[in-house]
Amino acid sequence: MDITKFVNLSIGRWRSQRSAHHLAFQHFEEILSTIDIINLAADDPAVIELCKSYDIDPVMASNAFRMSWEGESDWDEDENLKGTTVLVPIPDPNDASKGKLLRDRGYAETMPAVGIYQIDSEGTFILSTEYDRASAEEKIWFANPNLRFRVSLIKTSDGKGVTTASFSSEIRSLS
After folding, report:
1. Cα–Cα dist 35/164, whole Å
2. Among 67, 77, 70, which Cα is nearest to 29's?
3. CA 99 to mean position of chain CA atoms
4. What gap in Å lies between CA 108 and CA 134, rounded to an integer?
5. Percent of the chain beyond pLDDT 90?
6. How many domains does the chain have?
7. Which residues pair with 123 in a beta bridge?
8. What is residue 77's predicted lDDT score, i.e. its pLDDT?
9. Residue 166: which CATH number?
10. Integer Cα distance of 34 and 19 in angstroms
11. DSSP H helical segments within the chain, as ranges?
12. What's the CA angle centered on 37, arms 44 and 54, to 5 degrees?
């Protein structure tokens, strides 16, 4: 699998159920959300702006997309979890299974971020991102075209401790 196939499989509306273990707080959280993933054109102003902010020629971008989510957590029932981010894969010109992933909003910290991705021989997308105060590792794989799984770890900035571990099952909405 390459980044084009992975992104194309991901396009659509997903219903997500995530279980998160916040180890620092000794707390278990359940999050239900809807995730929308849509293609963005290579000449979309958000794609061009994000590439330029990292001094990357927008021509290098492949299969840019926008991910939006809205959900609720059982930890803070008054909090409405909601957001959107632009993601721009920049494949490695020498290896189609690797590259960079530019984001205008990170996962572990809400700031622009660049992650390093690889897609292993079994089709698992693995993303590692370093932030100012933490690092994140995510793995996403498809059980079939309408069911995917995601595992995420948030680690301390030195990479030695895990602060949060989560597992998500995501089902594509077919209606």
Report:
1. 21
2. 77
3. 14
4. 7
5. 70
6. 1
7. none
8. 65
9. 2.40.128.20
10. 15
11. 3-10, 45-53
12. 45
Separation CA 149–CA 117 (nearest Å): 17
Cα–Cα dist 21/34, whole Å: 20
Q: Which amino acid is at 30?
A: E
Residue 173's nearest CA partner among 24, 11, 3 is 11
**Residue 160: per-residue pLDDT:** 76
Task: List, in order, residues 6 or more apart from 96 with CB less than 8 Å away.
Answer: 2, 3
Distance CA 117, CA 97 (A): 8
When pLDDT is cut at 50, 70 and 90, the band that residue 80 belongs to is: low
Instruction: Give Cβ neighbours of residue 159 (< 8 Å, ≥ 6 apart).
Output: 135
Q: Which residues pair with 155 in a beta bridge?
A: 135, 162
The domain of 53 spans 3-172
Q: pLDDT grade, residue 79 (50/70/90)?
A: low
Tokens of 7: 């992104």
Tell me the one-letter amino acid at 67: M
Answer for the pair 116, 125: CB distance below 8 angstroms, yes or no: no
Give the E-state strand segments of the chain in sequence order: 12-22, 27-39, 65-73, 80-92, 95-103, 113-119, 125-130, 134-144, 147-156, 162-172
Q: What is the DSSP letter of 59?
A: G
